């Protein structure tokens, strides 16, 4: 009896389980489906988001590849795709129990994500370039226009200059924008990083190996002293690669995932998405694709004289101190050229949003945009003007130099168009290396630049599809809109 019914029972079991087995994709299938999601041009109410609202309502691009295309799919992005952040310039000593309520209410009016449900505020929030809401399409330009110096603002700006030891307003390192009832706002930018080789960075380097570099730097004669917060993001704000990818979906394209909410629409502050735009399975596919991206590689010139330049440049790169932060090999990852530590880059790099104080990556359902970009919630009783905490406004994670030849513009905000310009912008802990570079003769400097130009994006990287548009605002049916409530901005504009 058993022998007769076994094949029949097995058939029933397979029939029942086959839909379940279909959910378990092979690694190759996951990468292929993730690649399709990466290059997909998202739309509001997209068919790939049956439980969500698709693109937006706030977004910086309609696809992942729009911001990650230089050197192939998964590369860095142009300055036009910088993420913009609106920040409140901290003014210590002005808040107390009597004024904090008004302060928080005004911040919340400016943008609901400035204040969390616990009554804490963020120093900066993501200022999206686009929205699916057509109203006040010109507002973004108003918000990002530099603040003009007036008699009314001179005293306030002078106070900022004195606090930073700067004499001339033109040298103020932060870009001041709107001023609302004596609350000064500034603009910060982040250039899209390349994603090549991120899986190796995530899995082939131990925290202990990075922390060992930090301890070694404490003995530096050049003032180099880094600290470890995380290995991803310009401020080292995230340690988990999966969350780094998923966070970008929610922050940059407005695709809500289970672990992170899309940005709130300040024009519709009560709107809340009930489902998700990307299912857990879709998010896993996207992460699998990013993890599959090949690592950058060094491509040596065929000409013997050019190869000699590159080899000499590599030696000089070490000799002038660049390798103290741009460490060639870390853990099992070769030729990555980074220590993954935060360094004080000097007053010219001051940012209105400080780097994280301690190494931590909080992963919880409903994580918000400020957390993804590194801004931490603070209470009005906290101050940020001890010497150490002032330095947090000038700290940036050492970017890996592999693939640097194909990842212009350079530095956290894309301010440098060339490798030479990037070197000459270095300050703070990197000042000694910058001065050593300046002392080299022209041929020696050229050798270092030739060496850096040999660090290419992976030759196997896939070309970007021709239909991917560079200008998001030029696409039909899309209008530019600020993520700031129109009524607030109109009042500010009229007063200014």
Commentary on this structure:
It is globular and about 65 Å long. The protein is 34% helix and 8% strand. Mean pLDDT is 83; it is low at 1-22, 360-365 and 469-496. It is α+β, with helices and mostly antiparallel strands and 496 residues long. It contains 16 helices and 11 strands. α2 packs across α9 (280-292) and α10 (304-319) crosses α15. It has a 4-stranded antiparallel beta sheet. Strands 1-4-11 form a 3-stranded antiparallel beta sheet, with no helix packed on it. It has helices at 2-21, 27-39, 100-110, 139-144, 151-164, 198-203, 207-217, 241-252, 280-292, 304-319, 369-373, 387-391, 419-425, 431-439, 442-453, 486-495, and strands at residues 58-59, 83-88, 124-126, 130-131, 175-180, 183-190, 297-298, 342-344, 395-397, 455-456, 479-480. It has one domain (23-460, 478-495).
Key traits:
4-stranded antiparallel β-sheet, alpha+beta, globular, disordered C terminus, 34% helix, 496 residues, 3-stranded antiparallel β-sheet, 8% strand, disordered N terminus, 11 strands
Structural class: alpha+beta
What oligomeric arrangement do these chains adopt?
single chain
Strand count, sense and barrel status of the largest sheet are: 4 strands, antiparallel
How do the helices and strands follow one another from N- to C-terminus?
HHEEHEEHHEEHHHHEHEHHEHHHEEH
Question: What percent of the residues sit in helical stretches (DSSP H or I)?
Answer: 25-40%
Rg over CA atoms: 24 Å
The number of helical segments is: 16
In the predicted model, the low-confidence regions spanning at least 5 consecutive residues are: 1-22, 360-365, 469-496
Average pLDDT level:
83
Shape: globular
User: How many strand units?
Assistant: 11
Kindly estimate the percentage of residues that lie in beta strands according to DSSP: 5-15%
**CA-CA gap between termini:** 90 Å
**Biggest sheet, strands in spatial order?**
3-2-6-5
Number of domains: 1
């Amino acid at each position: 009896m058993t022998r007769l019914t076994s094949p029949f029972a097995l058939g029933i079991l397979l029939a029942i389980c086959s839909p379940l087995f279909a959910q378990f994709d092979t690694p190759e299938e996951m990468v292929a489906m993730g690649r399709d999601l990466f290059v997909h041009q998202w739309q509001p109410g997209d068919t790939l988001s049956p439980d969500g609202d698709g693109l937006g309502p706030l977004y910086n691009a309609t696809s992942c590849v729009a911001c990650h295309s230089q050197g192939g799919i998964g590369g860095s992005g142009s300055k036009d795709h910088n993420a913009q952040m609106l920040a409140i310039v901290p003014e210590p000593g002005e808040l107390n129990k009597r004024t904090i309520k008004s302060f928080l209410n005004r911040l919340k009016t400016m943008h609901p994500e400035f204040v969390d449900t616990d009554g804490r505020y963020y120093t900066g929030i993501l200022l999206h370039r686009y929205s699916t809401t057509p109203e006040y399409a010109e507002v973004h330009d108003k918000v990002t226009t530099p603040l003009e110096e007036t008699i009314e603002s001179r005293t306030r700006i002078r106070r900022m200059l004195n606090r930073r030891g700067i004499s001339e307003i033109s040298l103020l390192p932060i870009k001041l924008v709107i001023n609302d009832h004596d609350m000064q706002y500034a603009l910060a930018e982040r250039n899209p990083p390349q994603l090549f080789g991120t899986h190796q960075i995530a899995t082939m380097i131990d925290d202990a190996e990075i922390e060992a570099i930090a301890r070694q730097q404490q003995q530096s004669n050049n003032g180099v002293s880094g600290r470890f917060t995380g290995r991803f993001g310009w401020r080292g704000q995230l340690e988990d690669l999966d969350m780094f990818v998923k966070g970008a979906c929610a922050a940059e394209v407005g695709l809500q995932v289970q672990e992170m909410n899309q940005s709130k629409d300040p024009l519709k502050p009560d709107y809340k998405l009930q489902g998700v735009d990307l299912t857990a399975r879709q998010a896993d596919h996207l992460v699998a694709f990013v993890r599959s991206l090949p690592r950058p590689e060094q491509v040596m010139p065929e000409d013997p004289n050019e190869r000699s330049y590159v080899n000499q440049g590599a030696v000089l790169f070490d000799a002038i101190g660049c390798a103290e932060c741009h460490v060639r090999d870390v853990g099992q990852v070769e030729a990555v050229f980074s220590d993954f530590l935060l360094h004080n880059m000097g007053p010219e790099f001051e940012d209105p949003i400080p780097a994280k104080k301690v190494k931590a990556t909080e992963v919880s359902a409903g994580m918000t945009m400020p957390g993804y970009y590194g801004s931490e919630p603070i209470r009005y009783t906290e101050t940020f003007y001890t010497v150490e905490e002032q330095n947090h406004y000038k700290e940036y994670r050492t970017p890996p130099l592999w693939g640097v030849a194909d990842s212009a513009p350079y530095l956290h905000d894309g301010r440098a168009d060339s490798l030479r310009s990037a070197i000459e912008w270095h300050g703070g802990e990197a000042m000694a290396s910058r001065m050593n570079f300046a002392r080299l003769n022209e041929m020696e400097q050229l050798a270092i630049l030739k060496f850096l130009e040999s660090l290419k994006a992976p030759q196997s990287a896939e070309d970007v599809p021709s239909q991917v548009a560079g200008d998001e605002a030029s696409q039909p049916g899309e209008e530019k809109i600020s993520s700031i409530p129109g009524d607030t901005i109109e009042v500010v504009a009229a007063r200014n």
